[in-house]
Structures are given as C-alpha cells and as structure tokens.
Design brief:
Layout lengths: L1 E6 L9 H18 L3 E4 L14 H11 L4 E8 L5 H14 L4 E6 L4 H6 L7 H17 L3 E4 L4 E5 L13 E4 L3 H10 L3 E4 L5 H17 L8 E9 L3 H23 L5 H9 L2 H7 L2 E3 L1 H15 L1 E7 L8 H19 L1
Parallel strand pairs: 1-2, 1-11, 2-3, 3-4, 4-7, 7-8, 8-9, 9-10, 9-11
Antiparallel strand pairs: 5-6
C-alpha cells in the first residue's frame, strides 16, 4: 500500500504565516527522508489560523524543488473554483517541474464559505465540476479543441504545455456524500475518501456504492481506493490523547459550524456535538504504534484501500515538533507493517 502524508499547511494561533510555510515545508522534506511515498496537499481558502494552503500547485512546485523522489498529490483541487484553461496549464507545468511526480485529486469541497468568498453559487458546484473536468481532459489530450458549455466557451485553443505524464497525471475524485460514491465509480476513476465529515464506519458502508457504480458502468477490474485518515502516534495512549484532543475538538466544532450554512446542516450539527471519545472512536486513529497499526490494517481490509494518506495535525493546533515526532514514529513502527 502506498503511504503518504496529508497536510493543510497548518497555521497555528500565535505563529505568523511565514513560520507556517516554513514548518510545513520542513515536514515535506522530512517525509521524503523518512520514506513516505507521497505528500498530499489540500486546497483551502479564507481559513485564518487554520491553513495557508490556498495555492497548492504553487506549493507543489516548491516541494518539487526541495525533493527528488516523493510524489506530490493534490487532495484535492476544488474544480468549481478554478478557470479550467489556467488550471490545465498550471497542472501540466507542475507535472513537468516535478518530472512526473504529480498525482491529481479533484473534488468540490463541502464548505459553503469557500464558494461564497468567490461569489460562486454552491448549487452550481456539480455542474461546474463536471464541465471543468471535461475541459481539463480535452486540454491535455487534444492538440487543439473547442468547447461550448454552460459556464465556459472556447474556440480552437491549444493548451501548452501538455502534461509530462501521458495522457495526463493520475486523476482521482473525492467523494464526500453517500450518493457521490456510485457516481465516481461510474466515471471509471479512482476514488478519494476522507475520514473528516464522514466517520470510519460510514466510509466502510459507503465504499460498496463506488464498486457497484464501477461494475454497472462496465469498467474492467476494480477501482482504486485512496483514503485520508487522521493519525497520530505516540509512546502511550495517554500521550496521544494529550497531544491531539484540543486540536481535534477545535477542528470538528469549527467545521461543524461552517457546514450549518449549507445543505449538510445535519452533519454540521452532529460534528459540533461530538465528544472527544466519539472522535477517537469514529473519526481518528491515534495511540501507540501497535494500536494504530491494528486499526489501520482493519480499515485497509474493510475498504480495500491501496493508498493511505495520514493526517497528523487535525485542527492545526498540534505543535510542529510533535507532528515531526509522530511522523517519525509512524514511519519507523507502523508503516513497515502496512506495506
């Protein structure tokens, strides 16, 4: 199983933006040194004291310059917020700069505030996602093309450069709500799941819809499943709890509040009311190397995951030094048993 490190380029209170970038870039190079297969970058907008990662493709280029082996993944690019031709150019450029190390995850985001900030109606997100994905594929695989859609119209354009990887970087689509799992399966693309607003138990139940959609559309073989999981490893269960409790509770309460403004209000209410015991049981994998290994092996078996992305700083309040310590312990004591 491929093992990557997921990051939001966390911005802790009391730390300025420059230090937030510096700390996370160190974590990216340490991940390569420790043997992680990939680093995965979020895209987040208007998230003061949570994340400075509004431009993951720019950050990806910086990581490419600092590393030699590790893959650089997007988890995920929010397609409805992007201009498709500019995005096609930027993605292809990063693919060249990294010499084919780019893995391109795409999605819609469930945070209404990101759409409001860009003055794009959340209700248009699915249509914009579908149209942008269609344009990206044309831009990367056709020398010249035209497009007449609801949101974009282009006549005889030639996007340069074409990607380093042919026909384009690996694509994978994020699924958040249960109904999107089958839709991704029907597309015939790898799926990206996240233990974030969906619990571990929900992922186990929903993933069957992806495989059903894959089979119904007649795609050969079996679809590839990647998953982002909050993970923290410490010497004892108590130390793991002490390091993560305040940060995780801040995250779930703030995300719950953000979801109240959109169609997933019921999910937001649930997240706001969770106790940390519920978080530790249903939304995170933390503890000693032995307990973390056992739970991740169970999750891999249950959902058929081929890519695991571990998220070490849910809520952005875990200090940099503790994130590095968890990364090292995971690489040394957990990852070898998952390979």
């Amino acid at each position: 199983m491929e093992i990557g490190l997921f990051t939001e380029f966390e911005w802790r209170p009391g730390v300025d933006e420059a230090q937030a970038f510096a700390d996370s870039l160190i974590q990216m190079t340490v991940a390569e040194d420790l043997g992680y297969d990939a680093v995965w970058l979020a895209e987040l907008h208007f998230q003061k004291e949570r994340s400075v990662l509004s431009s993951p493709l720019v950050v990806g280029a910086a990581i490419a310059a600092r590393t030699k082996r590790v893959k650089i993944g997007l988890a995920v690019q929010i397609l409805p917020l992007s201009h498709p031709l500019r995005l096609a150019e930027d993605v292809a450029t990063l693919d060249h700069v990294s010499r084919g190390r780019l893995d391109f995850g795409v999605g819609r985001s469930g945070l209404p505030g990101q759409y409001a900030g860009f003055n794009i109606p959340l209700g248009e997100s699915q249509e914009r996602f579908d149209e942008t994905l269609e344009i990206l594929r044309k831009a990367w695989t056709e020398d010249r093309f035209s497009h007449e859609g609801k949101y974009f119209q282009f006549q005889d354009v030639c996007v340069v450069p074409k990607p380093y990887q042919k026909p384009h970087p690996p694509l994978r689509v994020a699924a958040v709500t249960e109904e999107t799992y089958a839709a991704v399966g029907r597309l015939g693309l790898p799926i990206f799941l996240a233990v974030r607003t969906s619990s571990i138990g929900e992922l186990k139940r929903f993933v069957g819809g992806y495989h059903a959609g894959w089979r119904e559309a007649g795609h050969p073989g079996r679809g590839e499943v990647g998953v982002i999981v909050p993970v923290y490893v410490a010497g004892t269960e108590r130390l793991a709890r002490e390091a993560t409790e305040a940060s995780a509770m801040h995250f779930y309460r703030s995300v719950g509040e953000a979801l109240l403004a959109g169609p997933r209000r019921a999910v937001g209410e649930r997240l706001r009311r969770m106790s940390f015991d519920e978080v530790a049981r249903d939304y995170a994998v933390s503890g000693t190397p032995e307990s973390v290994t056992a739970r991740l092996l169970d999750l891999r078996e249950a959902i058929g995951a081929t890519k695991l992305c571990v998220w070490m700083n849910v809520g952005s309040r875990v200090p940099h030094e503790r994130v590095l310590a968890s990364m090292r312990l995971f690489a040394e004591r957990v990852a070898p048993r998952l390979k």
